Amino acid sequence: MTGIPFARRAALAALLATGLAGQALAQPRNLTIALSTNVNTLDPHNTTTIGTDLSVISHIHMALLVRGPDMKLQPQLATEWRAVDDTTWRFTLRSGVTFSNGEALDAEAVKWNLERVMNPANNARVRPWFALVSEVSVISPTEIEVKTRSPYPALADQLSTFFLLPPRWTQSNNPANSAVGAGPYELRQFTSGDRAVLQARAGWTGDRPAFDTVTFRVIPEAGARIAALMAGEVDLITGVPPSEMRRIDQSGRARSGHVDSIRSVFVKYNLLTPPFRDSRPLRQALNAAVDREAIRDAIWNGIGSVSTCQVLTPAYFGYNESLRAPTYDPARARRLLQEAGVRPGQLTIEFEVPIGPYLLAQEITQAVAAQLEEVGVRTRIVEMEFGAWMNKYLRAPTMGQMAYLSQAWPTLDADGLLALFESGSPYAYWNDEPFTTLLRQARQTTDAARRRAIYAQATQRMCEESPVLFLFTQPVTYATSNRVTWRARGDDWVRAGDIAPR
User: Where does the record locate the signal sequence feature (predicted)?
Assistant: First the structure.
């Protein structure tokens, strides 16, 4: 065999090395995220659940705006937005954007989407978000105007959770279980209760996604999520029990962390039925009977903050800095129970707890129940799968006498979260006209100082009336594989765009 000269061998070796490196670089990057609860729908207009449904949807569909991990609004379809006056907003859109089926995503498509959810016949879950919208007008293919019946200062923030469907496709397809969108990924597989598989879309005009394939797997049990992470099957898990974080860190296979969230945890009372209806002493008694700090320290290892007699957290506009956490005072709780006409052992309360999305909800529920028992109030704990409980809570609606619940609002504005307790809201289970009147007054102005003053009164009223048993601000606990890093965020969004390969 004729020998190859050294120079040629070196050149060939370099060429082969370059080719192999190119092949390595060309290897697809896959990301797998574990979710604690099911993805119930892909229709962005029929869900308000950010941590699962809307997180998956946000990869497939575009919104006018999105909120980044720094909690600030960022442009997506809209390049500019401004309030023309107190009741008029104008949005300028990118030109030439299309859905993956070729339909134009222009001002007419945005108008169709807004009118779809505003139409009472469609019974869209997000319809209350746009109750104040009176008219949507197309100014040009790249400009749209939204008029409201009264000031809506948080409209732009609310639109960051409103994703856009292709009008023609939607009229002949079911967007609950299939998808055609304009986002960075397209749907490849959707099996409710198991997984959603997304693939980077060739027609996406934004920055190239860092991952070619993103898989969301539904793994309800925390132990199973941790096992999948340790086995290298998934790259990101949330809802990690704090007691497991050290073991994860010491494994050498993954890393854990936690950040403050915007999510408030409480026990919600059903004030439409006995025993909580018309019994403020009973509601206040239960608030005095619970040692929040002891429960947090024992179950969450001291992570998270105790609620300051309000459902707002410090991240929200309108947070009331003058309120303080209810004092743990079993003696006062017993006096209030006596005032409510409740004898020790006389009252047994049905206590529902949805299983899945809330950090160690079952353990906290049991601790709360034990402390209520100490002051003479018995409970009957009823555990339910989260989706079934949400249907019972909102669609039936037949929520039990009280339920463990956690809520947040992506606009980070008091009006959004407090509106869940407004008279007439399906979320409320409470009719309090003074509280509702204050919320409606705050909607009549765009003056920030005036709005803060009104929300201070509203949160004070809520603290005094105690429609819930105030508990905590829930932390976001998470762990990632050594393959990725995550810009952890406290507003429930789980997006591949916030994750980077290592």
Answer: 1-26
